[in-house]
From TrEMBL, chains A, B, C, D:
The keyword Hydrolase applies. It comes from Evansella alkalicola. Keywords: Acetylation, Hydrolase. Belongs to the glutaminase family. This is Glutaminase. The keyword Hydrolase applies. Transmembrane segments: none annotated.
Amino acid sequence: MEMCNDKETLDTIVEEANKHTSQGKVADYIPALSLANPDTLSVAIFQNNNVCTTSGDINEKFTLQSISKVLSLAVALMDLGEEEVFSRVGKEPTGDPFNSIIKLETHSPSKPLNPMINAGALVVTSMIEGRTIDEKLERLLSFIQELTGNPSITVNEDVAKSEFDTAYLNRSLCYFMKQHGVIIDNVETLLELYTKQCAIEVNCEDLAKIGYVIANDGKDVDTNRPIIPLHIARILKTFMVTCGMYNASGEFAIKVGIPAKSGVSGGIMAAVPHGVGIGIYGPSLDDKGNSIAGMKVLEALSERYNLSIF
Amino acid sequence: MEMCNDKETLDTIVEEANKHTSQGKVADYIPALSLANPDTLSVAIFQNNNVCTTSGDINEKFTLQSISKVLSLAVALMDLGEEEVFSRVGKEPTGDPFNSIIKLETHSPSKPLNPMINAGALVVTSMIEGRTIDEKLERLLSFIQELTGNPSITVNEDVAKSEFDTAYLNRSLCYFMKQHGVIIDNVETLLELYTKQCAIEVNCEDLAKIGYVIANDGKDVDTNRPIIPLHIARILKTFMVTCGMYNASGEFAIKVGIPAKSGVSGGIMAAVPHGVGIGIYGPSLDDKGNSIAGMKVLEALSERYNLSIF
Amino acid sequence: MEMCNDKETLDTIVEEANKHTSQGKVADYIPALSLANPDTLSVAIFQNNNVCTTSGDINEKFTLQSISKVLSLAVALMDLGEEEVFSRVGKEPTGDPFNSIIKLETHSPSKPLNPMINAGALVVTSMIEGRTIDEKLERLLSFIQELTGNPSITVNEDVAKSEFDTAYLNRSLCYFMKQHGVIIDNVETLLELYTKQCAIEVNCEDLAKIGYVIANDGKDVDTNRPIIPLHIARILKTFMVTCGMYNASGEFAIKVGIPAKSGVSGGIMAAVPHGVGIGIYGPSLDDKGNSIAGMKVLEALSERYNLSIF
Amino acid sequence: MEMCNDKETLDTIVEEANKHTSQGKVADYIPALSLANPDTLSVAIFQNNNVCTTSGDINEKFTLQSISKVLSLAVALMDLGEEEVFSRVGKEPTGDPFNSIIKLETHSPSKPLNPMINAGALVVTSMIEGRTIDEKLERLLSFIQELTGNPSITVNEDVAKSEFDTAYLNRSLCYFMKQHGVIIDNVETLLELYTKQCAIEVNCEDLAKIGYVIANDGKDVDTNRPIIPLHIARILKTFMVTCGMYNASGEFAIKVGIPAKSGVSGGIMAAVPHGVGIGIYGPSLDDKGNSIAGMKVLEALSERYNLSIF
């Protein structure tokens, strides 16, 4: 696989993509997110031999938001196994919005359709091992630190608190599932953990490294040591394709064809199977909640370097 | 209107109705309710001149549960007026279950369809006036004490606590509505008030008196003094017909034709327009959540005394 | 019951109501209906002793449309009995639109919720007795002729044809129910019958007479002869209250409190229990599909003569 | 890519898979399908150099059913272009059943979510070019004959007629979409074409060849001549992954990871990107409508030869 490894080409692609930011807008439902600069765009491409090509201000930090759903799922699968995890959350994509509650009522049992919609992600987070919130969060953080090789990664407590205070819809989803025995935990405790998980702060280089490990069957970039078992890395890529980009997943799969997961902070983590990992930060979102410029970058890279898995 | 006023006839009707209790079962989702004796059946018919014909153990107490929705609606309408109340809750019957959340997502704005389903009742309770829970509860209790002339009516705190602890579905409804600005209050505080409202304890004579006042355009039985304005009493009767008996309201309207509201405790409060008030307690419920024997009593009375409004 | 029987008062009420026609618009989805004059308003009130007070051009004809649902239900109930009819159509009001298909898929069995929504009305029409369309239509027509004492009532074939050709949504409902065995007939034949039923042409005096018979327990106005059995007349009034005015039935019950059924032609047939029958034609519709001026007339009459059943 | 090319290994895999047929059952809603032998299992793997490894009775014919949705989509995309086709059908997977009508009512505009559910496939078929049914069918058949190199492929008229006569649900979907302008054609004509499309008869070798062309960017096996443009072949593979296996697509993507499309006849057509094409016939279906033994074969092949795209 030939791949972009010169900064100049990447800069050109990024510059081109950045022209589209004005068509979207920054997420405004969380105060902390609404302060982001809509014209920012940073990209990192992580390849073998520790080569990382970047463009834009790669030191700019942002919170994982929905990207964290892939990582909590990895942890839950590693700790509890496929059977246990998928007894409580499904594997099927859905045409409903990521925060919809309808299927929980119409489906019996009221098991969320997949781990990438909020209901499913909340169930997955409730399966992270640990006796206390701190232990559970530590479990997740140390996994992410290992993936990125960046021990300084931590939670942005302001964002976490801001989200926790206004997480009414997620509370609604949780209590609905608690009524039906799908969630057993105390809901407020679970939400505290979940909002902290969403508020874990990274930069686009961190995301690129995470993508690289997932792309390469879960192996550590430097040492070739397995961090995620192969079959779990494959599961993650599958969900990234079928439901990684909210309600534009199908269109994205056609246009770009790279497993990817976006968050409302404007981050995208992409994993080209047996190839590169890509991290993007561009907070101007389209109406589906995906980074407008980020999608353009991935589209350009996929076309130019023939990265589609299809 | 000729009406049953001899105990003997009523005893016969009650005895006949009581044969059906074994077809149902006592509500089991609240521990306190599950202890009820399924074979109990008590009935009180309140007529003019303070005549009250009764059958069964009329001293047996039970909690209002959903019957309280009629009374909180009365209070909200009296305190805030029709316009304000119906800007936040609709007037239309629904074919969905009383605890359904779907319409809150599919309808825009996410205003509950009517005040007799849980979502609507929760909004109504949030409109009871008072600066604290105690004040709001006092507002409701004093209204019920005035309606019944029974100053000893109060909350069964055990039932209230038991319901509060397990009210996950109502929490889910509340947080969903809070997300959409339909509920503004603190949810936990609102639920405390709501579960206390549902746990107000009465006997069937109390219910009969309440029904009598509503039946007779809101006037106090003894003094003819208006307790509820005429147009509000009419609104209450209307909701009792179109949505008073859960998802059997339509069938009940055809078969019995008396405005009535049931609760999962097994109580039914019925108001024959410009006629009698009827209170019933029979905790064995059918699959829709209505008192099996209670429905039979009302069916027999309606047929015998031609009470249908249609 | 005191009731309006002088033309002058009625003219005043009609004149007042007619000021609201500009807020609505004539149904435009059927060419024949779209030609109606939006400012027309005619009203007839039928009382005992053959007194009929009228206002406006009472010779103006219009098609029954959804008002026919009440009459086909009467015929099916008389011919097949309650048990058979309600084994195939429900009795419960619904918050869904009259032409919604969703509940047919989510409910099991896929039995329509009530006979006033299109799905339910189509099932009811499929139960009208007769070996051929002509026989079935004749059955219905002769019933309506008997009710009105007007042997000239017949189908407006142009309207029928126009509706038949564009009845895609009703076809969709029919085929869905045929899939699930709720409709057994040939769908095209059923739709031909149904669109003819909807296109039966009357004037407001005819409607008033129909309302009068239903109001008075099914008895013929002149001879006191029963045309509709008492318990069926009661069923009709019940459905008219719980689902007679589309998705404004609940609000109408509160505001007016008279059993009534409207059609998109702008007709309303109302039946004050044990009182008068009212026929109205005012083709300017509100956004729920009810005659704007017609609703105002009924509101004024109900208030002035205290006609609410509640 | 190493791949199975010895009959012995394939026979072993097939034998093993065949043990599971008793857990499923043959589709019974179409008489012609219900006659299939549930224990039949035939598999063909088409590789480069015209190598085709087979197992079982590869001469047994079966109808394409839903597999045809991939081929009609290919034709529509080639004839009308992406923009036109996707203006009338979406690209997103759905958690709803393949024959669900709900989203057509709740979504606005009522555009089907994707071309693999029935509603979407019907819209796609309505876009096949031709002035008459015969011309349109000929367009599709000649495309399939070219793909397979088998000029004898044609429609099983008995199956087509049997499906046409009972296609009530598809009629319902069509008329619903016609109401909303998504389908413009005459519905009966469209259904005749659609049921003929579904009744096109192939054997598993034909399917393997089709899969091979799609797998290899649309190029003809022998001549390397492009039959399907590369970007359209990619679109087909994408839909096969996100929605090819009914409501088990997500699980199949995880477990097997090969683009595949199944039909209720028991056929599966699979396309390993830049690798082999696989055709399977095993009419015993699981509760999602997929060939039980066919899924097992694909699972075994994917595992053994590492065929997952993820």
